[in-house]
Write a structure and sequence with these properties.
Elements: E1 15-18, E2 25-28, H1 45-178, H2 184-197
Antiparallel strand pairs: 1-2
Protein name: ATP synthase subunit b
Subcellular location: Cell inner membrane; Cell membrane
Keywords: ATP synthesis, Cell membrane, CF(0), Hydrogen ion transport, Ion transport, Membrane, Transmembrane, Transmembrane helix, Transport
Length: 198
């Protein structure tokens, strides 16, 4: 097997070019400045355009058939969820408004009932007070009438006693002065005239 001398045998990765002027082999590494930038080389334009069209078509197909439908589905689901949430919020708001109106209505009814009960209580107390007052007035009137009747009877009795005492006194005085007792008819007429004069 032949030995590879590092100065005479080129490496497998090295490009060898013959320099007509030097007449010897010179090594140029593959990363050198030997050629133009590949996209700018005119003989590869057609293949580059074909690969560009294929890549663009594949990308368009993937976007149209895979990515965009998924995005559209996600957006549609999100829109449906938002619409459902908005409908639910509107329904809950309507229920809250209805509950508030029912509460206000029940509160007004309770206030009206309370006022009616208070008015009925005031009327009942007023009627009871009037009944008690009338009963007391009637009782007082009866007692007053009885007292007046008693006073009139006592007064009449006292006046009768006064008339009798006055008649007896007058008869005694006349009898003492004249020596004879006056007749009863004359004495009664004199007493009647005296009571009429007073």
């Amino acid at each position: 097997m032949a030995e590879h001398h590092p100065l005479t045998t080129p490496s497998p990765n090295a490009d060898t070019k013959i320099d007509p002027h030097a007449g010897a082999h010179t090594e140029h590494p593959s990363g050198g400045h030997g050629g133009a930038f590949p996209p700018f080389e005119s003989h590869t334009f057609l293949s580059q355009l074909i690969w560009l069209a294929l890549a663009f078509g594949l990308l368009y197909y993937l976007m149209a058939k895979v990515a965009l439908p998924r995005i559209e589905s996600i957006l549609h689901d999100r829109s449906n969820r938002l619409a459902a949430d908005l409908d639910e919020a509107q329904r809950m708001k309507s229920e809250a408004d209805a509950a508030g109106e029912a509460y206000e209505k029940s509160l007004r009814e309770a206030q009206a009932k309370a006022q009616a009960i208070a008015q009925e209580t005031r009327n009942a107390l007023s009627a009871e007070s009037d009944a008690k007052r009338k009963a007391l007035e009637a009782e007082l009137n009866q007692k007053l009438a009885a007292s007046e009747a008693t006073i009139r009877s006592r007064t009449a009795e006292a006046m009768g006693n006064v008339r009798t005492i006055a008649g007896e006194t007058a008869s005694a005085i006349v009898e003492r002065l004249t020596g004879t007792a006056p007749d009863t008819a004359s004495l009664d007429r004199a007493l009647d005239r005296a009571s009429l004069a007073h």
